[in-house]
Amino acid sequence: MQDAMTPISTGHFDLAQARVALIANGKAGRQDTRDRIDYIRARLSPIVRDLTVVPVRKGKDLARVAHEAVAAGNTAILALGGDGTQSAVAGALAGSAAVMGVLPGGTFNYFARELGTETLDAALDAVAAGIVRTRDLGRINDRIFINNASFGLYPQILARREDIYRRWGRSRIAAYWSVLVAVRNVSDPMHLSVTLDQRQVEIQTPLAFVARSAYQLDSLALDGAEAVRNGQFALFVAKGRTRRALIGAALRLALGQSVRGEDFELLVAQDMRIESRTARKLVALDGEKERMAAPFHLSVLRDALRVFAPADPATAGPAA
């Protein structure tokens, strides 16, 4: 069995000769983010050859900036932000020789937690230690994702979440509340034709999500983590059709108390093709919405990303 995060070098990444780019998310103008950048600069400037800070104000620019940082000769790219930021940068670095540093700065930080770098200090310690590991990535058509890709209800949840965040600020309680608000307005279920490796199934559901993070599944008490560690996708299909059933499932999911076999049906495959009756569909990738053209082909990219991780794999999340 090959883990989702595999050691490829027990040697030391030569930070003294490294050109490092720090990409900060769109909230770089906030005082707390500026304080984090100053702290990162103070920790790393003495031990790297060169450190360049690149603030990015629009999420859509993250991938472009990361590509430009690699083209400029930076051998390490550090991303400060939540899972959406990490996903955009990881997609830009996939398949390259550059090493990514995952610096948590979001609400849930599943990717950082899976690597064992849940806090900023832990992430900087991993960078300073210079241990490089590889990480599998998910791909849907031409887009990379690190945690999940969702169809149906979840993109609507994200739209509600943005409104709630603007009014009440970012918090996990606000994130969970957005789930209930969106479920209350759920409409008709989707009709999807799904090919799992060589098997085809027809699905009617208001919510389907494809998982690539074993840590996220473990933290939500959902099955499928072992399949993800083995290089497969875990496709979850909501069984509930009524608002009441969906609200109950959403609450149990938020509390990590989902009822196995009752709230969601689990389907596992290494390669998936999802066809929809609509030519374009709103898809949520690691918490960011995007309208994409159907059909959707999902594949696993093995060892596609090089990341800084703790020297002891036991300190990382369940996928390590």
From TrEMBL:
Protein name: Diacylglycerol kinase family enzyme
Keyword Kinase attached: yes
Domain of life the protein comes from: Bacteria
InterPro entries: ATP-NAD_kinase_N, Diacylglycerol_kinase_cat_dom, Lipid_Phosphate_FormReg, NAD/diacylglycerol_kinase_sf, YegS/DAGK_C
Transmembrane annotation, as ranges: none
SMART domains in UniProt: DAGKc (SM00046)
Keyword ATP-binding: yes
Source species: Gemmobacter megaterium
Domain DAGKc: 15-144
Keywords: ATP-binding, Kinase, Nucleotide-binding, Transferase
Xref: SUPFAM superfamilies: NAD kinase/diacylglycerol kinase-like
Gene Ontology MF term list: ATP binding; kinase activity
